[in-house]
Amino acid sequence: MTTAASLVVFPVLAGAVGGAVAVIRTPSPALVSGVQHLAAGIVMAAVAGEVLPELQASGPLSLMVIGFATAVALLLVMSRFEGDGDAAGGVPVGFLAVIGVDLLIDGLLVGASAAVSAGTATIITVALTAEVLFLGLAAALQLMRCGMSRVAAAAVTAGLSLVVAVGAIVGALLLADASAPVLTFVLAFAAAALLWLVVEELLVEAHETPERPWMAAMFFIGFLALFCLEALG
Description:
The protein is mainly α. The protein is built from 9 helices and no strands. The longest helix is centred in the N-terminal third of the chain and has 30 residues, at 29-58.
């Protein structure tokens, strides 16, 4: 519980910072794409270096498949509502709900990883901090496109970031004494959720901007940076 509560501070602050940056000085599409590539590399390294090894050593294959399939099914349902924030005017309730569920899952991953080990929790938190930074940026930009003022967009984004803390605390409480099969299911769910984030969200959106060589390099810089952190840890 203490580990999860202390680590989740970083993604919560990252979401608020991302929203503040978006409203103070809107970044260029090229810069946003570079951040997306960097975050994708960091998250991919966390999956490859921490989540999958823990998953292979934790429990039966059947639970891994069930956990993975459950995450994919949930994410497919959520993806149907992602376009609800495209129209200008009014509060994009569907868009905010999708972001909120995404952040709640992120928090649950922090709590779940804290139940596995402090080292795993630290690496997962680093990866999720990069992701939540981008989500805060994207959420604030979308809210302003829908007609919300800069101050309101920043405030709503900061409030949404607190959902990560809720998820982390709930995850830590529920999984503190969880059995190995339960942790196996949660880790499989986490692996699928993180892979979806990289393949279906970060990189897809990043490639909507005309590609430049340095953008692709950011993916590998992020991957290598987290890989080195894992090795040193």
